[in-house]
Design brief:
92 residues, 2 domains, mainly beta, two-stranded antiparallel ribbon, single chain, 3-stranded antiparallel β-sheet
Length: 92
């Protein structure tokens, strides 16, 4: 069998969308290897309550028209930052 094809989607814009999203990157991969990254800023971006989030944290990225959902569950070993201004984690 040959290598699996990878699919990528990248959307970026300085102005962002009406809800503050400035960038989305989605990359397919083998089972449990897909990646999704969303960045945003500005007054229209909903501000979650950050700072010492109770673990595990479940993050979901949902495409509303298709109902496709990327989900990640992050526990202690996955967390890179859990601060008042940023939560960053990478699944092992």
């Amino acid at each position: 069998m040959g290598p699996e094809r990878q699919h990528r989607l990248q959307v970026q814009g300085r102005r962002g969308t009406s809800d503050g999203i400035t960038g989305i990157k989605v990359k397919s991969g083998a089972a449990n290897e897909a990646k999704a990254l969303v960045k945003g800023k500005g007054g229209d971006l909903d501000d979650p309550v950050l700072g010492n989030l109770m673990l595990p944290v479940t993050a979901q990225l949902i495409n509303q028209p298709s109902n496709v959902c990327f989900e990640g569950v992050f526990d202690t070993q996955d967390v890179i930052k859990n601060e008042a201004t940023q939560f960053k984690a990478k699944a092992q």
